[in-house]
Amino acid sequence: MDQQTPFRYSKEELRVLSECNKESFYSRCLPFSTILGVTTYYAVKTGKLNPSIKFGATPKVFGAVVIGYLLGKISYQRVCVEKLMALPDSKLGSILRSKYAGKKALTMDIPESDKIIIGMKEDDKYDDVRKTSHMDIDTDRPHFANLDDTYRAPVDPFSSPELKEEPLPKYPPTTYEELRRRNREDYEKNRTKPYRGVLVPDEIPSAVKQNEIGSKADSWFDPPSKPNKKPTNIYGDSWDK
């Protein structure tokens, strides 16, 4: 039974790993641990975190430092992998290159169905959702011969000839000279009234006219009066009582 030989690192690979270890510690682990440790210590002192009864803030600060160290190593892992893949004759580098190349191939590979869809025309593609155009607004409307008002003129209820107002009659404008002449005639008539002996029919008061008309109407409907007859005897002679 053949036994597998253990993997051996080359000198270049060990040099790169040693550089990655130092660089990750100084550039990532130390800053992260310091920031988390100081922040945790400040939180315990201000009362935001409860300290330990026996050890105080030490356990929480130690845990924060360890978490910062691990975060620094994990964040620098990508940089170290790129350095190993950059080595030309490294077996570890070739393994990492094939591994990451396979991942890239999986992410960049397009399925055959998508390739077919890309090569097809827009009209040949099947879609569950019907695409409607903004220009076919009236295509889905039901058509009724007697109720189609697409090309019918709008009806205005105020445009009916019955509701139109008749124009007012136009009178000729009265000039200032005409008004002066009328006023002068009225003034002359009123001024000469006290010196007249006979009244003009237009000047008779309306109350007098109405009284005369009323008296005439009453006389028209009054029955004719019967003549007074004197009493007579059997011989036809009249005699006074």
Please identify the structural class as seen in this structure: mainly alpha
Low-confidence stretches: 113-118
What string gives the helices and strands in order? HHHHHHH
Task: Please indicate the percent range of residues in DSSP E strands (runs of 2 or more).
Answer: under 5%
Overall strand count: 0
Summarize the main sheet: none
Gap from first CA to last CA: 189 Å
Explain this structure to me?
The protein is mainly alpha-helical. The chain has a domain at 11-112. Helices cover 50% and strands 0% of the residues. It is built from seven helices and no strands. The termini are far apart.
Structural key phrases:
rod-shaped, mainly alpha, 50% helix, 241 residues
TL;DR of this structure?
Residues 7-91 form the OCIA domain. It is built from 7 helices and no strands.
